[in-house]
Design brief:
Blueprint lengths: L15 H4 L7 H17 L4 H32 L4 H5 L7 H9 L9 H11 L1 H4 L3 H6 L1 H18 L3 H5 L1 H34 L10 H12 L8 H23 L2 H7 E2 L2 E2 L6 H30 L9 H5 L4 H12 L8 H26 L13
Antiparallel strand pairs: 1-2
Helix pairs in contact: 3-6, 3-9, 3-18, 5-6, 9-11, 11-13, 13-15, 15-18
Length: 381
């Protein structure tokens, strides 16, 4: 029975009243019905654009909180430099036997290994596992809102037969929407990213007490403008990742089987895609995006951790010159595989993380979207 008809139970003329008292509702069902009714009443006036923005913000926050420890492991692995012996000196908190065991199960090239770094974080406790969480979470709400709104607007603005009818055109529109979303969000999140990286760096554990202390020290030592250090490479990294992410999701959904399932009455309707399919599409997009963006991520982490690395000058030297020069410096001094340091942690973080992002976004949009009678309830992604 629809929620809107429950007010008719007291009316003897309503035929529904005869079927309503079949069995008393349990308290749990009544509470759930009340929550759903309240959500419907409170969001009935939301426009589709506002629903997209709020859903994207919530999705980014949830994904960040769940996957932050792996983000810390990724950053620390990307900051490790030179050979395994010099890098392993940064893992002094790990017992030698554990270190040997982790090296035997090494997942990252020329690094002590993802397992070793994760052991260090676990031994450090929640304060180390979630170090840098405040700036990381602080940027996620506006970031998610901007990401999904920009991607949706740019993709839908691609008018013309080729953009809408050809498969390549639809993929290109989704990719361009993701590229615009990633580049625009970078201007907003770069200061937060810089503080997060410096808090996550192992060498800064005894230097910065908390996020505001890191901000004060940075402003005094390098100036407020240093908050946007690495903006250019951040725009390229985020633009590339988002382009691959949204294009992959579009490609995974753009199949004859999906069209047959979703096409009802000449319009798209939500609800036919299972939760597992939604998660799988997002995870695939996140994993592929990580494959392409990892070299840029390594350079970004080292630029933003300027002065935080074990050699004292390595990161500062990498903060100068063009992006190609910085990529060449890392590849020539540490080997080409150094551009994929931290890839194991990044893949574990943004693969499932991409699935969580899309799944939470769809779930939130299903709650916040306007009634299906007034607009299409399929989330634009």
């Amino acid at each position: 029975m629809k929620h809107g008809k429950r007010t008719k139970r007291s009316c003897p003329a309503a035929p529904e009243a005869r079927r309503a008292p079949k069995a008393p509702e349990s308290s749990g069902n009544s509470a759930l019905a009340g929550i759903k009714l309240l959500a419907t009443m409170s969001t009935a006036t939301l426009s589709p654009g506002v629903a997209v923005a709020l859903s994207g913000g919530v999705a980014n926050v949830v994904e960040c909180v769940v996957m932050h420890p792996l983000d810390t492991a990724k950053t620390r692995l990307q900051l490790l430099q030179h050979t395994v012996p010099s890098a392993s000196s940064q893992l002094g908190h790990i017992h030698h036997s554990h270190h040997q065991w982790c090296q035997n199960l090494c997942l990252d090239i020329k690094a002590p290994g993802l397992r070793a770094v994760l052991l260090e974080l676990v031994y450090g406790g929640p304060r180390v596992l979630y170090r840098g969480l405040l700036p990381a979470v602080g940027m996620q709400l506006p970031r998610g809102m901007l990401k999904f709104v920009m991607s949706s607007r740019v993709s839908s603005a691609m008018a013309g037969d080729w953009w809408t009818s050809a498969r390549a055109g639809r993929l290109a529109a989704a990719g361009l929407g993701g590229l615009a979303a990633g580049a625009s969000e970078s201007v907003l999140i770069t200061p937060f990213e810089l503080l997060k990286v410096r808090l996550q760096a192992a060498e800064r554990l005894g230097t910065h007490r908390h996020s505001f202390d890191a901000l004060q020290q940075l402003a005094r030592a390098e100036g407020v403008g240093a908050l946007w250090l690495g903006l250019r490479v951040t725009m390229l990294r985020n633009g590339l990742w988002n382009a691959v992410y949204f294009a992959t999701i579009k490609g995974a959904r753009d199949k004859p089987r999906d069209k047959a399932l979703h096409s009802r009455g000449g319009r798209q309707k939500a609800g036919n895609e299972t939760l597992l399919e939604t998660f799988a599409f997002g995870a695939l997009g996140g994993a592929l995006g990580s494959c392409f963006s990892n070299p840029l991520d390594v350079v970004k982490s080292r630029i933003q951790a300027r002065g935080c690395t074990s050699d004292g000058q390595g990161a500062a030297a990498r903060a100068t010159g063009s992006l190609l020069q910085q990529l060449w410096t890392v590849a020539s001094t540490e080997g080409p595989t150094a551009l994929y340091k931290g890839f194991g942690a990044k893949l574990l973080r943004l693969g499932p993380g991409g699935g969580i992002l899309l799944l939470v976004y769809h779930t939130a949009y299903g709650v916040l979207a306007p009634p299906s009678g007034s607009c299409d309830t399929t989330p634009p992604s």
